[in-house]
Amino acid sequence: MKRKNSYLVRFIMLIVCMxxxxxxxxxxxxxxxIRFCDFGWDSAQVHxxxxxxxxxxxxxxxxxxxxxxTIMLNxxxxxxxxxxxxxxxxxxxxxxxxxxxxxxxxxxxxxNFPDNWQGWLVxxxxxxxxxxxxxxxxAPDLKSVPDLSKYWELFKDPEVPTKxxxxxxxxxxxxxxxxxxxxxxxxxxxxxxxxxxxxxxxLSGSMAAAFKKGIPWVGYYWEPTWVLGKxxxxxxxxxxxxxxxxxxxxxxxxxxxxxxxxxxxxxxxSAPDIVEMLRKYETTTAMVNKVLAYMMDTKGNTEDGAIWFxxxxxxxxxxxxxxxxxxxxxxxxK
Length: 334
Description:
It is built from 15 helices and 10 strands.
């Protein structure tokens, strides 16, 4: 009888020990999986992986990055098929955005980076020169988009030398049509060819190639992007944004676009700690530019960029989380 009791005690102790071992695993699994909208541009994917690293290593959730385009993934967010959108370019999808918010299934947690920009620009050495590179100012009085009419010969199109070349964006993009309209509104279509590039790589590549050679370049671009994180470019001025002017002929600067963080409202119950963190999550265009430039310099992927940010911007992201979560994230980074 005593031997049977001894076996029983050992069995109970074994069960207790196994329970203690498995408890953290069960608790972790109980938290479930957080699904991020993994859009096709680098900045969105970097933000997903910054937030994802914190969510996984600091808070104990599993992760899934769901690839897709803007319309598909935002619709999925409203249909409970994904959980988090780290970059909602609100005005670009205004009708769908309004529908998502009105549905009650999607909540806007506020800005990710409020200082995004898009417009026309030239290398700074075109205006100020670059003594270190032996480049003299080429157009010292160039300040605004309308000023370009005086300098078309400086930006001469090698294929059509009777006009300058303006590097427009990608076929099918809304901004490409806007830039074409701007050329006409400012009367610059008389002086410049509207050169529409075939891809983002071709557009950014043309800018980077011109910068490397120290030659003139003028065109459209936006940020945050790796190329504006690396190159010293100067924005050309336009009249301040005016909705009436914009609706009429685009004869003013691009309006600022809200880049906000959206979540499926189910997270308020299933993952309130993540919601709290994402409410505090905020970066700047300059920060993201540097991450993207680091990735380009090192040929790293978006996960590499996220790790670099977490290691080098500890003063930023630790403000989003508790000390306990921060300690776990720091340990995982070692």
